[in-house]
Amino acid sequence: MNDKPTNPVLMGVIGAPHGVRGQVRVRSYTGDPLGLGDYGPLFDKSGHRFEVADIRPAKGIVIVTFAGVTGREAAEALGGTELFVDRSQLPDEDLDEDEFFIDDLIGLTAVSADGAPLGQVVAVHDFGGGDVIELRPERGGRTELYPFTRAVVPQIDLGAGRLTLVPPGEIVARPEEDETP
Question: Are 105 and 156 in contact (CB under 8 A)?
């Protein structure tokens, strides 16, 4: 692929330079952080192409050498750059039945356990304590954040375009708990 992605998926974000030879720290959002370059060239929002020439692990990040980035000043200029690939580059066939790409959650309708619409997923974040989904409520107003755990999001149906959301603290009674002894 030689053009700007038409259906971009965020793969990572460039951070600070590492050393003086143009290497940069990158926070990778791939399952295997060292696989960042396995999906082909990466692109920024404007369509500028980045080829991974070398990648190695570091604590919580990867250190990347991009082709053509040769000095610290060039590396500094890239700080904060988001890196994308086109959705078509991602290997859907390698996913297990209960696996998906985080980007596939964006736009899903969240429904309660009884099927009532709650809102729409607008983002998935990782602030360091685990993934969090951001939901724009059906009734409008400020977005809400929920932990992205199996307890809070017990079901995801990509085909139907929805996920079931059980807000933390909401008690879901089980039939055996409703029975009087």
Answer: yes
Strand order in the sheet with 144-147: 144-147, 131-137, 117-126, 109-111, 162-164, 155-157
Strands ordered across the beta sheet of 61-66 = 49-50, 42-43, 82-86, 8-18, 23-28, 61-66, 52-58
Rounded distance between C-alpha atoms, residue 150 and residue 1, angstroms: 36
Are 144 and 125 within 8 A, CB to CB?
no
d(CA 180, CA 39) in angstroms, rounded, equals 57
Continuous H helices in 14-172: 72-77
Weakly modelled stretches of the chain, pLDDT under 50: 1, 174-181
Question: What tens digit of pLDDT does each residue of 65-97 get?
Answer: 999 999 999 999 999 999 999 888 877 666 666
- DSSP letter assigned to residue 108: P
CB 133 within 8 A of CB 121: yes
